[in-house]
Sequence to fold (247 residues):
Amino acid sequence: MNFYGDYHIHTDWSDGKSTIREIEAAARNFGLKEIAFTEHGIRNPAYSVKKLIKQFDYINEIKAESETSILFGNEADLIGENGEIDISIENQRYLDLLIVGFHQFAFPKSPKDWFRSYLPAIMNPFFSKRDSYRKRNTQTMIKCIEKNSVDILSHPNHRFFFEPLDVAKACVDTGTLIELNIKHLDVIEEILDELLKTDVKMIVSSDSHELSTVGRFEEAEKLIERYGLSSRIVNLGDKKPQFKNHK
Ligand SMILES: [Zn+2]
Ligand SMILES: [Zn+2]
Fold:
């Protein structure tokens, strides 16, 4: 299978190991037509608003001389029970695409959120799968994609558990993509049957932190074949994904 692009890549601007130029060259040699640089959210210790604005300028320079189409995005963090994320509307103006995910390194916006949602998710996965917890997370996730212009939900069902059918329906209504994240295919497979009860679209991403994994989607190909997902995958073959935030 060929893929149009890889839309979830970290570089040495946050906690990735490779430079933007190295990744662009590797992606071009690998045959990708488009890539997106998507560092961690600004509450992550490895990134900041200052870096986001500087990287935006730097990527604009690279874009001008690159054969590969380059997008600039961010993998923002879910930080509050009402679906708040750690990038302001003002700073979202720099982005071509917005990914949102739950991460243990981004502290919640208030102590209440810390105790009710964040702590169980990072400390005790068994507890965090309980019904009451899962129902609250479902509402949090739905509010998040309804109130923010989210393009992609990154690594769903990883640490932060919710009702997949309800969230997938909200994704369909809002045009939000579910990520098939190469590093977390096992957890997406756990909820795949529920997701497939809807028309939700999906995107395959490497979540790469080093050169060797950019665009390497072999493991996802097996899943795509096994579950017949081809028509749902927006970056498969010559399909060029469209993002809400694309300027
Ligand atoms: Zn992530
Ligand atoms: Zn990531």
The CA atoms of residues 28 and 137 lie 39 Å apart. The chain has a mean pLDDT of 94.
